[in-house]
Amino acid sequence: MSKNRACVLIFVVIGNILELTMLIPLIFSCIVAIPFAAGSDAPCHNIGGTCQDDHLHCSGSYVTGLCSGDAHRRCCSSHTAVDIGGCSGVKIYSRDSWGARRPKSFSTFHTPASLFFIHHTAGHGCHDFNSCAHTLRGIQNYHMDTRGWDDIGYSFLVGQDGNVYEGRGWHHVGAHTQGYNSRGFAASFMGNFMTHLPNAASMNAVKALIACGVQKGYISPSYHLYGHRDVGSTECPGDQLYKEIQSWPHYSHTHP
């Protein structure tokens, strides 16, 4: 082989190596991006839904915020309610139905509870499933990412749509009422009720939830009901709601 041909071959080899070196970051970024692109629809898939353009027919209802892509690509989900075993007057939507994240950890609640606490979130209210699901995910993100909690704090939450939404539920200790979390459950009304009451549908839903808990053995028949401010320095559950619950069955003026 002549010296000139050898030099040309060396330059070709070096060029190929340099070209491959430049391509490596691009190849790596493509490989890394594949699972993230595929997994970006996971919140929708986790609740048994399908991501699709919202102009298409959906046999259930569309849920916002669970799919990748533009705003018109939404999750079509049937969002079934939790089986409450024949309790009447209340529909409890499961965590999966509103797109809850998995808890970091949890502690088992030993029923029956002797206490039940009423809260309000002091934020925005909601009036239909989609807006309530969006609000719930925001509350859970705040509790887990900003406050550093293991999960959304409340046992249950209720919207102005008259439905109850599962938070930590009947089986896990909450993070809602400091000093009493292992002794009681809490329902939080989504919204701010300092100056006005929640609507009748939401208040009736919480009363039915408590009755259901008693019926199923999760709450003691001799339970005591409190507002959050009864056991802590807070305005929760709002002035108007606090006045209202003092007329509810089992409300106690005695400190637990």
Automatic annotation (TrEMBL):
CDD domains: PGRP. It comes from the Eukaryota. Residues 90-232 form the Peptidoglycan recognition protein family domain. Keywords: Immunity, Membrane, Transmembrane, Transmembrane helix. Residues 98-238 form the N-acetylmuramoyl-L-alanine amidase domain. The keyword Transferase does not apply. InterPro entries: Amidase/PGRP_sf (IPR036505), Amidase_domain (IPR002502), PGRP (IPR015510), PGRP_domain_met/bac (IPR006619). Coiled coil: none annotated. GO terms for molecular function: N-acetylmuramoyl-L-alanine amidase activity; zinc ion binding. The chain crosses the membrane at residues 7-37. The keyword Transmembrane applies. GO terms for biological process: immune system process; peptidoglycan catabolic process. Belongs to the N-acetylmuramoyl-L-alanine amidase 2 family. This is Peptidoglycan-recognition protein SC2. It comes from Magallana gigas (Pacific oyster).
